[in-house]
């Protein structure tokens, strides 16, 4: 069975002069990406994919989840990024006894004024590190995810907007299971990307040893961009041109995770319990635009989609018991989908 045909109506391509002008604007506006990368390399050895995806999430106005063993520079990465961008940073250690008020803030009664005043919590910062998010109960997880989605917090009868830019990076330990509260699929779907970290290579680890045990002090990172420049860049990212063929390619990839038999992959039907949501399509398109922006291009190519696809779909595909019994991973399914769906 062939995929259903697409409607012919769609957004027309911009005029050549307009497209040329857009590409020039983006090439000029994206010059800060190289500066951020240079500053990040002063503190982060290796982990280039993590740094790249942090930038993609930041520019696409999304949030990112990192899964990896302790000691892989997750905290250092977002703290360094906050220094480079010159924004506020809060690290919140999620524990089983954490309460929503510890995260969002609360009302405090003042005997002198005989009034309640608002004490804002650590969520009121630009970059939030939610360390081991699966160690807090569902009520705290929901409070964080509501703030992520609505970009505002209600304390008592008052509603407060969160600062811009706002980025949440949540971490999860893939090994420890005791005392954890796994995030439901509907909540993990709120994260734009899920990046799985691996150990550094031998040469990289030798450089890490030298950097952390040498007599010379670490190189100080410089502030190379202002928060308002990130907000402007986010607006420009949405202007990156995406051809109708690329849009169809994204829809085909997501639909192939829902109805693999329609895309000549009947063997996957028994391995996938549910596929990507429409939010997967939105985030894949936005992620591809942001990735093209980091490569200083004003248009999206299929390689941009393929670069962000695994991180967008990794936490949005459910495996059946049959897949788990056969030790088939989500990454294998995504690889097969990418290798089967026709590239424009």
Descriptors:
single chain, 344 residues, alpha/beta, Helicase, Ruva Protein, domain 3, 2 domains, 5-stranded parallel beta sheet
Question: Would you write up a description of this structure?
Answer:
This protein is α/β, with parallel strands linked by helices and 344 residues long. It has 2 domains: 31-216 and 225-237, P-loop containing nucleotide triphosphate hydrolases (Rossmann fold, 3-Layer(aba) Sandwich), CATH 3.40.50.300; 240-344, Helicase, Ruva Protein, domain 3 (Orthogonal Bundle). 45% of the residues lie in helices and 14% in strands. It has 14 helices and 11 strands. It has helices at 16-29, 32-43, 48-59, 74-85, 100-104, 138-150, 185-188, 202-213, 227-237, 244-258, 278-294, 302-313, 321-325, 330-340, and strands at residues 64-67, 89-93, 105-110, 115-120, 127-131, 152-155, 158-161, 167-172, 193-196, 272-274, 318-319. The strands form 4 sheets. The chain has a 5-stranded parallel sheet with strand order 2-5-8-1-9. It has a two-stranded antiparallel ribbon with strand order 3-4. The chain has a two-stranded antiparallel ribbon with strand order 6-7. Helix 2 (32-43) crosses helix 4. The longest helix is centred in the last third of the chain and has 17 residues, at 278-294. The chain is globular and about 70 Å long. It starts with 15 loop residues before the first helix and ends with a helix. Mean pLDDT is 85; it is low at 1-10.
């Amino acid at each position: 069975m062939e995929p259903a045909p697409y409607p012919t109506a769609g957004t027309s391509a911009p005029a050549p002069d307009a497209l040329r002008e857009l590409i020039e604007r983006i090439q000029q506006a994206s010059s800060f990406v190289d500066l951020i990368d240079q500053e990040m390399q002063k503190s982060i050895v290796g982990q280039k994919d993590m740094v790249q995806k942090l930038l993609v999430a930041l520019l696409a106005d999304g949030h990112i989840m990192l899964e990896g063993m302790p000691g892989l520079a997750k905290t250092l990465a977002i703290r360094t990024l906050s220094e480079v961008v010159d924004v506020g940073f809060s690290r919140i250690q999620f524990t089983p006894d954490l309460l929503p008020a510890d995260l969002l803030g609360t009302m405090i009664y003042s005997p002198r004024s005989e009034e309640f005043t608002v004490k804002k919590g650590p969520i009121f910062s630009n970059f939030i590190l939610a360390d081991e998010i699966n160690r807090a109960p569902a009520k705290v997880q929901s409070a964080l995810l509501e703030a992520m989605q609505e970009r505002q917090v209600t304390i008592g009868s008052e509603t407060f907007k969160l600062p811009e830019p706002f980025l949440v990076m949540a971490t999860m330990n893939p090994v420890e299971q005791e005392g954890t509260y796994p995030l439901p699929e509907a909540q993990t779907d709120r994260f734009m990307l899920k990046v799985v970290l691996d150990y550094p290579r031998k040469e990289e680890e030798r450089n890490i040893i030298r950097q952390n045990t040498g007599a010379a002090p670490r190189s100080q990172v410089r502030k190379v961009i202002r928060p308002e420049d990130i907000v402007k860049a986010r607006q420009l990212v949405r202007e990156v041109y995406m051809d109708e063929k690329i849009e169809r390619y994204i829809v085909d990839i997501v639909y192939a995770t829902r109805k693999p038999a329609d895309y000549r992959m009947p063997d996957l039907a028994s391995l996938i319990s549910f596929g990507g949501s429409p939010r997967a399509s939105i985030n894949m398109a936005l992620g591809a635009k942001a990735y093209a922006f980091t490569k200083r291009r004003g248009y999206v190519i299929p390689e941009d989609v393929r670069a962000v696809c695994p991180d967008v779909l990794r936490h949005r595909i459910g495996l059946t018991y049959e897949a788990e019994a056969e030790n088939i991973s989500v990454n294998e399914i995504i690889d097969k989908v990418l290798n089967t769906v026709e590239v424009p």
